[in-house]
Amino acid sequence: MQMSYSQRIMGVTAALAAVLGTAIPASAAADTTPVGTWDGIVTVADAPAQHATLSFAASGKACVTFGSGESASTGVGTWSATDADHFSFEVVRGALDPAGNPITVKASQQAGQESDNFTSSGVSEIFASDGTPLGSWPSKASATRTSASDPADCV
């Protein structure tokens, strides 16, 4: 049986994609990576949930913003795919503790994504301004993508 030209091209393309590790078509990539801007809710331990805007750039940069205006707190970090529908991210941001002292929060999360929604869990570590560890607590997030555009400069 003779294959048509388009069948041969499709076969060669599939073989190359398998060898190169790019078996996901470009049109599907937007649905299977977190690239874009997300509206989410973040919870650390038993503290009240906080609204957050999360952004994931195609370059691997991750950003999160809590609050708005003068009370906004922004963190920057990285993200990476762990498989077709999972990714991890880590962000570090400055904040104030309840007494008004500056602290640093480092959040590390493992996320599962289903199209334009993800949920994640991990740990948030808190450090004093001098770098002294103050503790770590379980944290989680859930978010819905509001834009699939690459926020290349998310801060």
TrEMBL record:
It comes from the Bacteria. Keywords: Signal. Residues 139-149 have a biased composition (Polar residues). The keyword Signal applies. Residues 1-28 form the signal peptide. Residues 129-155 are annotated as: Disordered. This is Uncharacterized protein. It comes from Lentzea tibetensis.
